[in-house]
Amino acid sequence: MSPEDSRPVRLLHEALTHDIIGCFYRVHRELGFGYRERLYSLALERELMESGHRVARETAVMVYYRGRPLAWQRLDMIADGKVVIEVKASALLPADATAQLFSYLCATDLEVGLLLHFGREPRFYRVISENRLRTPGS
């Protein structure tokens, strides 16, 4: 094993995602389980802004099909212009929730997304869509 192999892996937007996850847990601790997604989104937005982050909520992005505009898709929020945040508030997380977030990332030039599940137990999922791996026109 070379010395390079023993270095810790740095995550893309690591500090920002760490802050977002911390805010997520604070909101879940305060509100608990049982509210609608909108309330968790509003509380998370407030928590992020109080922590010094810029938040864009309900941001619309154009989805393209075969290189041509198809329709607008709304994203729950974007933090600091770098991380897409998808909020879910249900007892069970839908099986396709991370795939949905991946699709949202593909509709932007952003590479990191966090799926924040305000379920009975708080859970988060990090989703990556590296721009360098995308096919042109997608």
Q: What's the overall average pLDDT, rounded?
A: 90
Helix content: 25-40%
CATH topology: Lambda Exonuclease, Chain A
Strand element count: 5
CATH C-level: Alpha Beta
Distance between the termini: 38 Å
Class based on secondary structure composition and strand pairing: alpha+beta
What does the model show?
- With 138 residues, this protein is of the alpha+beta class.
- The chain has a single domain (12-131), classed as Lambda Exonuclease, Chain A (Alpha-Beta Complex), CATH 3.90.320.
- It is built from three helices and five strands.
- The protein has helices at residues 14-31, 37-50, 97-106; strands spanning 55-65, 68-79, 83-88, 112-118, 122-128.
- It has a five-stranded mixed beta sheet with strand order 1-2-3-4-5.
- β2 and β3 (83-88) form a beta hairpin.
- The relative contact order is 0.17.
Quick overview of this protein structure:
By secondary structure, this protein is an alpha+beta fold. The chain has helices at residues 14-31, 37-50, 97-106; strands at 55-65, 68-79, 83-88, 112-118, 122-128.
Layout of SSEs?
Blueprint: H1 14-31, H2 37-50, E1 55-65, E2 68-79, E3 83-88, H3 97-106, E4 112-118, E5 122-128
Parallel strand pairs: 3-4
Antiparallel strand pairs: 1-2, 2-3, 4-5
Characteristic terms for this protein:
single chain; 138 residues; alpha+beta; Lambda Exonuclease, Chain A; 3 helices; 30% helix; globular
